[in-house]
Design a protein that fits this description.
Blueprint lengths: L2 E3 H17 L3 H7 L6 H5 L13 H7 L21 E3 L8 H14 L9 H7 L7 H17 L3
Antiparallel strand pairs: 1-2
Helix pairs in contact: 1-5, 5-7
């Protein structure tokens, strides 16, 4: 596992969350910001030190239909020494808490209502191919609980 500064990790995780809520693949976001197809995938990989370039923040905000301040920590965020590195642990749908957070945001945002109509639709929304067995299992478990708790 690589090490990066806390701010970079915060931005990576926040942008991944926003990307998943919107239903945008890593490849599509890369294209949307005029980068090579593996740009975002490499940034979201725990085994690389890659991080977003601040020069791309405006394009990223446009592509994710948000503002730059939506993925920058608030003023109350605990500032650390910029030279201090932390383990690069990128959020993943293998984590039930993260999966629940993303699914809840898809529901709340309600811009993709069909995404929650079936587990297959949700897999498609998250671009989870069949080889992502562990992620699919967790997403299905979280989705089933979410649907049961949100029936009208």
């Amino acid at each position: 596992m690589e090490k990066i500064n806390r701010l970079s990790l915060y931005i990576i995780n926040t942008l991944k969350f926003l990307r998943l809520v919107l239903g945008k693949s890593a490849i599509q976001l890369s294209y949307d910001i005029n980068k090579g197809e593996n740009y975002v995938t490499n940034i979201e990989n725990n085994e690389t030190v890659n991080k977003y370039n601040s020069a791309d923040f405006a394009a990223i905000a446009d592509a994710l239909e948000c503002k730059i301040h939506d993925f920058i920590p608030s003023d109350e965020w605990d500032v650390s020494d910029s030279h201090t590195k932390v383990d690069k642990v990128v959020d993943t749908l293998k984590d039930p808490r993260f999966a629940k957070r993303v699914i809840s945001a898809v529901y709340t945002r309600n811009t993709h209502p069909k995404a929650l109509e079936s587990i297959e639709n949700l897999y498609g929304h998250f671009h989870l191919k069949s080889d992502k067995v562990e992620e699919r299992k967790v997403v299905k478990e979280v989705w089933e609980k979410f649907v049961a708790n949100n029936k009208a």
